[in-house]
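User
Take a look at the entry that follows and flag anything odd:
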Amino acid sequence: MSSVTQSIRTYVPKRWLDAILTQLSDNQISVLFDKVDEAYSSEVVFPPKPDVFKALELSLPSEVKVVIVGQDPYHGAGQAHGLSFSVPVGVKVPPSLRNIYKEIETSTDSECPQTGNLENWASQGVFLLNTSLTVEEGRPASHSKLGWQAFTDAILQIISRQGGVVFMLWGKHAEEKANLLDASKNLILKAPHPSPLSAHKGFFGCYHFVEANTYLVNSGKTPIVWCAKSQPNLFSNL
């Protein structure tokens, strides 16, 4: 069976699905997944089905330290791969991610990679969640009414209940999710979106990546290595 015809439900990690079923009914999830399966059978949809739940695959609920909320996947071919703001290795770094890297480099005195693949962050407990997990080619927000919002809202609430998590909410759409989160148990950080249209309105200089690591360390957790410190070339004299 090809990935296009295989039900989207089969790709959801069981531990996450079990947790989500404490928030949503099985019928709600089935209705959503039926709509998504139909979209994949009749439209060009991104990301590829096996990548839709990549954020869930790379972190168990108990492993999440930081959540970065995006809106929907990139709608161009070869860009979306299941992690908000991230692109596969070899794909040009998108403008918003370039600005994210710029803020990290400025605030942490580090050097970010040339790749836009953020799986290294995910492996450290950074949960890169779009509020819609699929999109039709060339049509941003085209799947925002399929039912993904309830699904991803449930995920945010599950993580929030654990406590001790940093939530980065950039832009109006992400900030609207703050009412789902328990601010008494977590750190909620808000700033304008890192898009070139708004980054200069307060995203640059927000120090979210510094604040996040300070909070994690104070909570007894290992900080995130956002971007590596510049290292000398050990082979330059060989």
